[in-house]
Amino acid sequence: MTEERPRRREGRTGVLVLVLSIVPLALQASMVRAFGVNMLIWDEFYYVPFVHLVRTGGDWSKWIFLQHNEHRMVPMKLVLAPLSVWTSWSVVAEMYVSVALVALTMWGLWRIFRPTSDRGALAFLPLAFLLCNPAQYFNMLTGIQMAFYFTLLGMIWAFSFLQRGTLPGTVAAAASATLASFSTATGFLVWPVGLLQLILARARKATVLVWSAAGLCCILLYFWNYQSPGQISSRPIFVGIGATIRFFLATVGAPLAGGSRSASTIIGGVVILLGLAWVIRDLRHGDLRNPVRAPLYALLASGIIAAALVTIGRASFGLTQALESRYVTFTELAVVGLYALAIGRTVPKPVTALFCSLLVAGLGVSSAHGIREARLWRSNQEALKTILLDYDRQPASALELLYFPNDLAHYAPYLEHERLVAFHDRPPRSLLTDRGFVLAWGDARFPRRVAAGERTTGQVEVVNLSSETWPGLREAGGPAYAVRLGCRVLDPAGAEVMPLAERGELPGAVPAGARASISYRFEAPRRPGAYRLECDLVQELNSWFSAHGNPKMTVDFIVG
Fold this sequence. Notes:
Immunoglobulin-like; six-stranded mixed sheet; 51% helix; elongated
C-alpha cells in the first residue's frame, strides 16, 4: 500500500506537467498561426532541386549527407521529403513540426528535472516557457530552423539518458547525441559536455569508454567527405578583450534581455557569476559530483559553450549579432541549467522564490520583445512573398533579396507550376485583361470637415462595368492580384500631401455588372486647410484602373 501512494503521486504529477506544458506549447503554436508566412528564406531555396527529386521519384539519397555550409541537417531533410509531397512544401507545416519537437524536448527536460527538485510541477513551468520563449521567433517562424530544434532535442535527451548510468542508457544517449550532431554542427558540443556529465556523476569506466568511442565514430562519420564551407568571413576573429567579453556576456544574457544590449550584458554577467557561485557552493557541500545534479551542470555548460562558439564566429560583426534570435535556442540552456540548480531539493525556498521571480520577469520582457519582432518578421516575409509571386515582373535588384537571380529563373517557374510554398496559398495567377479594367463610381460618403490628424472612415461605391470578375483579397489568396482601393491626399494645387499606403478591400469577388461598397480609412493632414481625397482601383501587381482610361474618384474636404 505504501508503494502505491508514491506511484499515484508521481502519476498525478506527470499528468499535471502534461497539462501545464500545453500552455507554453500553445503560445508557440499561436506564434506560428499569427506570424508564420508560407515563404522560403534564402537558405531554403537551396533545397528546390531536392524537393524536385523527391516529388518526381528521383534519387535523392545523395542529398541526405550533403552539407549545408558546415551542417549536415540530416533529420531536417528526412522530414522535408514527405512534407514537400503531403503539404505542397508548406513552410508553416515545418513550423508546426518545430512545435512538436519542442514538446518532445520538454518531456526530456522534465525527466532531468524531476529527480533534482521536490518543488512540484509548477516549478517546472518556467522551464517549459523558456523552451517556447518568443525571443527565438526566427527559429519558430522559419521552416529550415527545425534543424535547431532537432539539435536541442538530441542534446536534452542525451543528458537525460546519461542520467540513468546504465549501458543501455549510454547507448540511447549516444544515439540522441548523433541526432543532435547531424542536425547542426552546434550539436557536437554534446559529446564533451556529456563526458563532463559522466565525470561529475562518477560513471563507470566502461560507460565513459562507450560514450567516448561513440563520439569518435560520430565525428569520423560526420567529417567523411567533408568540405570546408566556401563562404568564410575575412573579418578578424579577435576584436579585443573588452569587446569579446561584452559580446560573450550579451550572448549569454540575450534570452531574457528583451533586445537590450546593456541588459543582455548585465544579465549575462549575472548568469556567469551565479553559475560560478553554484559550483563553489556544491564543492563545499560535496554535491558537485552528485549524479542527480550532473545533468544540470551539463545544461549550464552547454549554454555557456554555445555562447562562446557564437562569440568566436560573430564577435567581429558587432554587439547586435549577440542578440540574434537564432542563437537563443542554445544559449538559453545556461539559464535552464542555472534555474534547475536553484530549485533543487537542498536549496532554501526563499532562494528558489527569488530565482523564479527573476526568471518570470525576464521571460515577460523577452516575450513582449519577441512578439514585436515577430510582427516585423511577418511583414518582411509578406513583402518578399509578393516579390516571389510576381517574379517575372521584378527587377534583378528585387530578386536578389530572395536568392541568386540566375537560380531563381529556374526555381520560381517550377514552384509556380507545382504550386509549392507561396504559390500554394493562392489560386493560379488571374490577371485582368484590358476588358476587365472598366468601372463606374457611385456614391462616396466621407465627412466634408474633419479635425487635424483625425482618423477618418468613409464608404466608396463602385460598379464593375467590365466583362470579367474582380477578385477580392480572399479570392486572390492574399494581396497579390487582388482588386483593391487606393487613395492619396492632395492640396488645392494638386500636389500630393501624403501618400496613403492603406488599401480598401472589396467585400468579395465582384462579378461583371455588380456593385460593391468599399470601406476606407485615412488620417487627415495635421495642417488646417482645403484638401482633396483622390482614389483609384488597382489590381495589385498588375495595373491601376486609371491607366486604362477610367476616371479617378475625388472628394473635397476641409481640415480645421
